[in-house]
Design brief:
By secondary structure, the chain is an alpha+beta fold. The chain has one domain: Alpha-Beta Plaits, CATH 3.30.70.100. The protein is 48% helix and 26% strand. It contains five helices and four strands; from the N terminus they run αβαββαααβ. The protein has a four-stranded antiparallel β-sheet with strand order 2-3-1-4. Helix 2 crosses helix 4. The longest helix has 23 residues. The model has no long low-confidence stretch (mean pLDDT 89).
Length: 152
């Protein structure tokens, strides 16, 4: 009787270990990628060239400096067809390795911005000038999903 209990108990333990190892080996056909900070901008009528000059100049210079310093992975500018006057017509996208990396590099990113754009007063002045030619409608954080199993 005692031998039977030991055998049944051993079998139960082996079965549980097998079940746990199978559960741990679930292979999903996707994995999490980088984190994107997406700004939604509405360029005011007739101000496209003026705002795009800023994007191709100072904004790009800051993004390149952030990339060189390792604070960001990449950046994109996406033009969007607005269907109503209040919708965004431009997306400014900045990619980070992860949400943790984005948060951890905030102080470094601020130092880079101060170096490239200028001190707080210069940044505020630029923001006020840009407010004349565009509206910031909001921002979102998004996580990229890579449609491949992790580890490839």
């Amino acid at each position: 009787m005692k031998t039977k209990r030991i055998a049944v108990g051993s079998f139960a333990v082996v079965l549980m270990i097998a079940a746990i190892s199978v559960f741990a080996q679930i292979n999903r056909p996707y994995h999490n990628g980088g984190v994107w900070n997406i700004g939604f901008i509405r360029i005011k009528p007739g101000m496209d060239t003026l705002y795009m000059n800023y994007i191709a100049g100072q904004w790009k210079a800051e993004q390149e400096a952030q990339k060189k310093d390792g604070n960001i992975i990449s950046y994109k500018v996406i033009s969007v067809e607005a269907h109503t006057p209040g919708e965004f017509n431009l997306m400014l996208m900045t990619e980070y390795k992860s949400l943790a990396a984005m948060e951890a590099s905030q102080d470094k990113a601020e130092a880079v911005a101060q170096k490239v754009v200028g001190d707080d007063a210069a940044q505020i002045k630029g923001y006020k000038e840009r407010a004349e030619i565009r509206d910031v409608l909001g921002a979102r954080l998004a996580r990229e999903i890579i449609l491949e199993p992790k580890g490839r």
